[in-house]
Specification:
3 helices, btk motif of tyrosine-protein kinase itk, Immunoglobulin-like, elongated, single chain, 3 domains, 4% helix, 334 residues
Length: 334
């Protein structure tokens, strides 16, 4: 059975059942910027590489076996037009040979940062129920489950994580690096083992993101963490003079953590929080009357909220700022 080569598809198909709406794929190119991953043809962006591979296609068409082509790039210092050569370390080199790059640029993460359980040591439970057509979960393997014999077949995969550095792409578990994303997807696995068709179970709760906002008066900082269905007994907020720790647990077991140093000192004993239906409202009692430019410490501050002409009413854009000595600024010019 043929396998579709459209970007983001990779599904097996039969030409007899192929039509103009059979394939959902990406017509653009991968975009990796400041930790975000997505496609130039659609707006969805994710941070995890596995989630990037799962972004559904935004273009509908026919399945194909023709390799996707990209417009030729203009020769640059980073991606010249010449064909690559492979050096002794298996790294593709474009253009004239130059001084060997620093090894650290492509080194995998230190051993201390590796997961406690290695990918090759994780297997499907013996009693796992696997649906026909389920794809192997190991990186770079696309084998589908066809029956019990699939459990015994050899799997060739990558045990590390994707590494993208200064235009090069590869895996932390092996040395080969390429420039084109399509070539990266075709890098042969460097580990051998058995297929894994189920996701490994984890005791760690899922972490979610909660939006938060804040405003201030002369005496307080009020922070709103927007969260619904909070498990009140398990949710904790800890105040210290220079730090705030918010640990939210939801009724479905998911968690949200917001730990931050504070821009200015507070009075922990006079600070408080309240868990409401749609948010957690946190009130930090300032230890002085100074205006905060942000919740966390911030260098190079050029503007801040001011508190009226006498320092008593919380306003924005007033003529006088209250500073650390807790006095209107004009009194400090004497």
């Amino acid at each position: 059975m043929a396998v579709c080569t459209n970007k983001g598809c990779g599904q097996p198909f039969e030409e007899a059942h192929n039509n103009d709406t059979s394939c959902e794929y990406h017509s653009g190119a991968p975009v990796f910027h400041e930790g975000l991953k997505g496609w130039s043809c659609c707006s969805k962006k994710v941070t995890d590489f596995d989630d990037f591979l799962k972004i559904p296609g935004c273009t509908v068409g026919r399945h194909t076996t023709v390799a996707p082509t990209n417009p030729p790039a203009k020769p640059t210092a980073e991606a010249p037009s010449q064909k690559p050569t492979v050096d002794a370390n298996g790294v593709e080199v474009y253009g004239k040979p130059s001084a060997p790059p620093a090894t650290a640029a492509f080194e995998p993460k230190p051993a201390a940062e590796e997961p406690k359980v290695k990918e090759e040591d994780v297997h499907d439970p013996a009693d796992a129920v696997i649906a026909q057509g389920t794809k192997c979960k190991r990186p770079s393997c696309k084998k589908e489950y066809t029956g019990e014999e699939s459990r015994q077949e050899e799997c060739v995969f990558h045990s590390g994580t994707p590494v993208f550095h200064e235009g090069s792409k590869g895996w932390s578990c092996c040395s080969r690096k390429v420039l084109e994303f399509d070539e990266f997807l075709r890098i042969q696995g460097c580990k051998n083992g058995k297929h894994r068709f189920t996701e490994p179970k984890s005791d760690a709760p899922e972490t979610v993101h909660c939006r938060h906002d804040w405003y201030q008066t002369q005496n307080s900082i009020i922070i709103s963490v927007f969260a619904k269905k909070v498990d009140k007994p398990k949710t904790k907020v800890v105040f210290t003079t220079e730090e705030l720790k918010v640990d939210v647990e939801f009724q479905d077991g998911k968690i949200f953590k917001f730990h931050t140093p504070l821009s200015q000192p507070i009075e922990p004993e006079n600070s408080k929080y309240e868990i409401l239906t749609t948010k957690i409202e946190i009130t930090l009692k300032k230890a002085n009357g100074i205006s905060w430019p942000s919740i966390e410490p911030k260098a190079g501050v050029t503007s801040w909220t001011t508190f009226g002409t006498t320092g008593t009413v919380g306003t924005v854009g007033a003529k006088e700022a209250v500073v650390a000595t807790d006095a209107p600024i004009h009194l400090l010019r004497r």
